[in-house]
């Protein structure tokens, strides 16, 4: 084989990740090189056989949040037209599916409501559950511009992160107490006479029930449950409510919980209470972690929406797509990624097509994921590296790197569609994702021949909120935010201005307040598991490290278990000492690092080095019932010293 290998230089060499340049097929339990003709034929025949034997719902598609909009559009079309099911999803399920669910419930649209420029011009910015300096460094530059011009920055986070160090105030809440804190802030706003009564009366519904639900959360009760001093609750509440322009932004510290959608709704409630939505400079914004998580959902690579975020249950929407695509769309939601994994275990899904995702190392309780994928009759994985997931496949298809070897578009967290162009030629033997999909579709009876622009134009002819975003306009303007229904105009940079309209007809459906219940983390602390582990990202690495691990970084120190010095002293462990970290699901080892930014009782790890320290062995798979996102942020663990090896006896 002429494959190129990429190696990590972290404290020696990790197991190499191989850049795929030849298809692989499984023979006698082993992956061996094959021709493209053989691999594509075998991939297609496996799908054909599975659908013929078990029906279209026995198939699942994991699309790619790092690939282009055009690839995601065709991946979901392949699932719905070539196969005939709505079982398509991507790693948005792992991170921001609760954001989409919450925003959709409140406003009918799953995108953040503001632009980055508006963040720069805001008066108060609240980063809640977001270490943006390390996880979203480009966005954080916009925050810093606002701070330098006088904006007040509040950071709500269990850890005093590098982001919190830039804040005017840091609110160090206990993990899993976001809803109580939001209620406490709301009650203080209401009792201070700072609720935006004009907006509440005009653009919302359900306020009386919401205010009643907030009433028990006095400052004293909020402080008792959340650990945040009452004075900080008061200061944030009054600053946010009084701001002319206020931005509330969140990331995975809000969403990666068993009640992630409720957490998102608790923040949306605060935006509705203060009128910080539907106006320039005021907004509610999830910060997307990968380059095209927003775009993948916009393109319909999710089980309940068609491109343009149109509901599959709407018969008129289904009819328009069915007519254009020549196949009736199932009148029901498909299974999301979490549900598909569960259905693999039950035997309901027997074939799966994974494009650019690595669930073996990204899913919570990852050993369970390996077992589930192992139940499949037919697994096809399309990727650029020989990941742990590809190693389980029956067919491996070598693809191009979307961020540098592909043409198309991406959509960022502010809903801005931007053109991307191939800067490098892919290695000989690797093929473009869209070309691979079209080849498979043709083998399954559909005469597909798409360029990226052809795929894009087909999508925008069916999705009204993208209709005005042509490649030519993108070339001219450099980027366009959706909605953009016309090629003759541009819409405001912010969403939901209709909620401020005096005319009820123009105002449309009011945004509902949601009454929520506080439910603590599923993995309870106990004598046996007394420490709370939360997880997150570091600036030097990316996701499971498959791509970033091949490059040196002066910031990279490998995986550690971060502990407060008080906990380390109580455990009798020193910085740098290797320890055993156990949860109710498994155990791993890692060196200790001391971090005074943690509270006593709270530990922190990342998921960047799964080959050396597979943190997802110990995370919990408890999931949000609405969005299917796992509770990565709240595992119960214990830490034990590893006995020193006895010296060898010399005879």
Automatic annotation (TrEMBL):
<dbReference type="Pfam" id="PF01568">
    <property type="entry name" value="Molydop_binding"/>
</dbReference>
<keyword id="KW-0479">Metal-binding</keyword>
<keyword id="KW-0411">Iron-sulfur</keyword>
<feature type="domain" description="Molybdopterin oxidoreductase">
    <location>
        <begin position="19"/>
        <end position="442"/>
    </location>
</feature>
<keyword id="KW-0408">Iron</keyword>
<dbReference type="InterPro" id="IPR006657">
    <property type="entry name" value="MoPterin_dinucl-bd_dom"/>
</dbReference>
<dbReference type="InterPro" id="IPR050123">
    <property type="entry name" value="Prok_molybdopt-oxidoreductase"/>
</dbReference>
<dbReference type="InterPro" id="IPR009010">
    <property type="entry name" value="Asp_de-COase-like_dom_sf"/>
</dbReference>
<feature type="domain" description="Molybdopterin dinucleotide-binding">
    <location>
        <begin position="531"/>
        <end position="635"/>
    </location>
</feature>
<dbReference type="Pfam" id="PF00384">
    <property type="entry name" value="Molybdopterin"/>
</dbReference>
<protein>
    <submittedName>
        <fullName>Molybdopterin oxidoreductase family protein</fullName>
    </submittedName>
</protein>
<dbReference type="InterPro" id="IPR006656">
    <property type="entry name" value="Mopterin_OxRdtase"/>
</dbReference>
């Amino acid at each position: 084989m002429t494959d190129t290998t990429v190696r990590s230089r972290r404290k020696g060499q990790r197991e190499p990740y191989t850049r795929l340049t030849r298809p692989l097929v499984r023979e006698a339990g082993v992956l061996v090189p094959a021709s493209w003709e053989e691999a594509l034929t075998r991939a297609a025949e496996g799908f054909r056989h599975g659908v013929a034997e078990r029906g279209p719902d026995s198939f699942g598609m994991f699309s790619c949040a790092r690939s282009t909009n055009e690839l995601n559009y065709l991946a979901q079309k392949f699932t719905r037209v070539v196969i005939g099911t709505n079982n398509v999803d991507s790693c948005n399920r792992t991170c921001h599916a609760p954001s989409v669910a919450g925003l959709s419930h409140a406003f009918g649209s799953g995108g953040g409501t503001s632009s980055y420029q508006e963040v720069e011009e805001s008066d108060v910015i609240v980063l809640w559950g977001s270490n943006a300096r390390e996880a979203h460094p480009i966005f954080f530059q916009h925050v810093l511009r606002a701070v330098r011009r006088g904006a007040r920055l509040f950071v709500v986070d269990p850890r005093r992160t590098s982001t919190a160090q830039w804040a005017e105030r840091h609110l160090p809440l206990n993990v899993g107490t976001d809803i109580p804190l939001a209620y406490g802030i709301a009650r203080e706003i209401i009792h201070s006479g700072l609720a935006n009564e004009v907006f509440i009366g005009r653009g919302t519904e359900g306020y009386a029930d919401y205010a009643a639900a907030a009433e028990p959360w006095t400052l004293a009760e909020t402080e008792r449950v959340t650990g945040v001093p009452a004075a900080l609750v008061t200061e944030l509440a009054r600053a946010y409510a009084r701001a002319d322009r206020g931005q509330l932004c969140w990331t995975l510290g809000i969403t990666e919980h068993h009640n992630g959608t409720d957490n998102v709704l608790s923040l949306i409630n605060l935006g509705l209470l203060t009128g910080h939505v539907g106006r320039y400079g005021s907004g509610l914004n999830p910060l997307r972690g990968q380059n095209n998580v927003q775009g993948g959902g916009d393109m319909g690579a999710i089980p309940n929406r068609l491109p343009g975020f149109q509901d599959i249950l709407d018969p008129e929407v289904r009819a328009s797509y069915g007519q254009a695509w020549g196949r009736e769309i199932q009148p029901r939601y498909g299974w999301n990624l979490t549900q598909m994994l569960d259905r693999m275990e039950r035997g309901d899904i027997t074939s799966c097509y994974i494009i650019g995702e690595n669930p073996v190392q990204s899913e919570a309780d990852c050993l369970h994921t390996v077992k589930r994928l192992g139940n499949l009759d037919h697994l096809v994985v399309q990727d650029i590296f020989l990941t742990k997931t590809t190693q389980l496949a029956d067919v491996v298809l070598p693809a191009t790197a979307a961020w540098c070897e592909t043409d198309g578009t991406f959509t960022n967290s502010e809903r801005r569609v931007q053109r991307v162009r191939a800067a490098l030629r892919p290695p000989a033997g690797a093929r473009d994702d869209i070309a691979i999909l079209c080849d498979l579709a043709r083998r399954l009876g559909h005469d597909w021949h798409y360029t990226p622009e052809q795929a894009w134009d087909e999508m925008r002819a069916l999705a009204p909120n993208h209709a005005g975003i042509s490649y030519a306009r993108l070339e001219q303007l450099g980027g366009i935010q959706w909605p953009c229904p016309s090629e003759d105009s541009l819409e405001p940079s912010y969403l939901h201005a209709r909620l401020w309209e005096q005319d009820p007809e123009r105002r449309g459906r009011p945004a509902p307040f949601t009454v929520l219940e506080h439910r603590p983390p599923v993995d309870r602390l106990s004598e046996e598991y007394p420490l709370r582990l939360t997880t997150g990202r570091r600036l030097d690495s990316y996701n499971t490290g498959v791509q970033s691990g091949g490059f040196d970084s002066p910031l990279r120190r490998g995986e550690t278990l971060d502990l407060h010095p008080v906990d380390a002293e109580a455990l009798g462990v020193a910085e740098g000492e290797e320890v055993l970290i156990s949860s109710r699901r498994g155990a791993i080892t890692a060196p200790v690092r001391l971090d005074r930014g943690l509270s006593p009782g709270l530990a922190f790890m990342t998921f960047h080095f799964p080959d050396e320290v597979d943190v997802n062995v110990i995370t919990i798979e408890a999931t949000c019932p609405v969005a299917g996102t796992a509770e990565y942020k709240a595992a119960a663990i214990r830490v034990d010293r590893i006995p020193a090896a006895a010296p060898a006896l010399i005879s």
